[in-house]
Fold this sequence. Notes:
- By secondary structure, this protein is an alpha+beta fold.
- The chain has helices at residues 13-25, 29-32, 52-58; strands at residues 36-44, 47-51, 66-77, 80-89, 94-104, 107-119.
Amino acid sequence: MPELEPEVVERSAGKVALAVYQAYADHNRSAIEPLIADDFRFTSPLDNGLDRATYFERCWPNNENMAEFDLLRVVENGPEVVVTYEARTVDGRRFRNTEVLTVRDGQLTRAEVYFGWSIPHLVAEGSFIDRES
């Protein structure tokens, strides 16, 4: 992931998003804290609208398990950014997620995380899991 100079985090939603991922990959809480708004909300399949304090208590510690992010897609649309990434954990596990991030005044106000799949995919190409079995 390309490193960003502090001045580059000027305030486009895409640049704020990149700075957030960089801080996460660097395990740098002091870098991410000013990028997270006081009214921040975090939602995933396991979390529903967590506030900033609960996010840092429940989710931030997971950064220690992450080794790297490979950003595959960064699509900026005004205040929103859609990011798809492949991540690698410190134990070598790989997975893909997509996140929709909302930025206001240079800070992340909302993160919606959509869990993806393991890499390699657990299902053979051209196949599927029969949910009725």
